[in-house]
Amino acid sequence: MGQRQIQLRFTQWFEKAEIDRPVSLHSLRHTFATNLYEKTGDLHLVQRALNHRQITTTEIYARVDDEAVRQAVGAVH
């Protein structure tokens, strides 16, 4: 099965599940990275899991939730 066929099936599954927001296989990679970073707080672990050579690439994938930032800043005061 080729990449295009996988993408088409993936799109069909999301339509069937009535998920309206745009989703791609690549967006799942971002979600995985963000969730792993939130659970571990270890960017180097995420880098290894995604098999990135550069940590700067991993930083693009692993996004920090705004609420997590607010809580962290609040904990400092």
Topology:
Elements (H helix, E strand, L loop, with lengths): L2 H14 L8 H16 L2 H8 L4 H7 L4 H11 L1
Structure commentary:
The structure is a single chain. This protein has 77 residues and is mainly α. It has one domain (21-76). Helices cover 73% and strands 0% of the residues. The chain contains 5 helices and no strands. The protein is flat. The N and C termini lie far apart (54 Å).
Tally of discrete structural domains: 1
Total strand count, please? Answer: 0
Largest sheet data: none
Helical stretch count? 5
Residue fraction in strands: under 5%
| Backbone structural class | mainly alpha
The helix content is over 70%
The ordered string of helix (H) and strand (E) elements is HHHHH
The 3D shape can be described as flat
Instruction: Please state the CA-atom Rg, rounded to the nearest Å.
Output: 16 Å
State the low-pLDDT regions, or none.
Answer: none
Observed structural traits:
single chain, 77 residues, mainly alpha, 5 helices
Q: Could you provide a short overview of the structure?
A:
73% of the residues lie in helices and 0% in strands. It is an all-alpha fold and 77 residues long.
